[in-house]
Amino acid sequence: MKKSFAYIMSLLIISTMMLGACKPAASSGPVEIKYMMWGSPEELAVWQTIVNEFETSHPNIKVTVDVSDWDGYWEKLKVLYASNTPPDVFAMDAPLFRDWQSRGVLLDLQPYIDQKPGFLDGFYPQALQNYNIDGHYYGLPRDCQTIVMFYNKDMFDAANVAYPQANWTYDDFRQIASQLTKDNNGDGKTDQWGFGADLWDMELFWSEAIWAHGGDIISQDHTQTLIGDPQAREGWKFISDLVVTDQSMPNPDTAAQFGYDLYAAGVVAMWPMGHWAVPDYKAVEFQYDVAPMPVGPAGQATSINSAGFVVSKDSKNPEAAWEFIQFAMSETGQTRLTQLGFALPVLKSVAESDTFLKQDGYSMNQQVFIDSIAFAHVKPSFKGYDEWATIVGDGMNPVWLGEQELNTTLAEIVPAANEVLTKYNQ
Questions:
Q1: Which CATH number describes the domain made up of 148-304+379-424?
Q2: Alpha-carbon separation of residue 119 from 113, 284, 387, 423 (angstroms)
Q3: pTM of the full structure
């Protein structure tokens, strides 16, 4: 018997309703994302405050923060990627960014940025530079670091030496370092040095010395190591004179006897460092302040680096991850991070406000960190960075120990460093 059209339609409606009833109900709970970072318990506490505020304004997103120490962080990240369970958002050290981006595991953030015209206008461009590849951002900075010269005012006062000024030169610097190197115990052994620095990585001193003498670190296309060029050698020679000739700077073996931070240990008068060390210096028992890095033959130079955010390409919730990054880069998020004291904000409106310039518990001249941006060089980021840095850092050690001549050492290091660049640029 032929069924009526109305009858057939009623059956279809009933069937559709029954099929719908069989489908699982859509989840009404919040989207969950994980943010991984390196840091201390104090940093975790501040990040939890930021997360709490974010979740209040974004009740549909829940964020879990996972914090590890530096070495453990990178090992854990590798394990998670190997098991196909990467975090949604994770912290990135800018020099390592290109290695990670070249693996194809990072989300291109440019489409999200394009939806918010002017979003990046309020940030320091130097902090943004390393995350831009061919006009696309695969990461964004969460904070930045300029290197400045910390100095022990008590040591300067005891020696009746004037504090470093904004326009002091490398010649002034060398003279002051010699004046402040002393044998306070009278036993014929130096127990106070005018200057100290970590000479293994470029960030804290040797890149500044090379730039200030007119040299450079690496070619713009990341294919040639430039630290052996004539002007760069002048920067290296300046450091060698401090360590080997003047002995106003302890060599790495001597420095190791006092731990990592010779400045906090009270054995050096001057110490180049970033803002990340400032919270630890609350505990020092001497008066201190900061000055810009000195002016060299080619001008004034310092280094600027950043920690950033990246999003896993395989994140199941990239929109939520992007919302979280936007919040952390907003005035609210940047203000909370500034109160932690570990870094210079990347958002100009926060960095140039009392939030940063008049932080509680610090009497040093915070403006120096901002003013240094004007002559800062971005710390290079390139594929093979870790391997390249190890060749240079380890290779220069015999010079600082007085065991090998500078030119001979550079003649060995540069070809080896170039081999790394060639390998990673094939």
A1: 3.40.190.10
A2: 7, 40, 35, 37
A3: 0.90
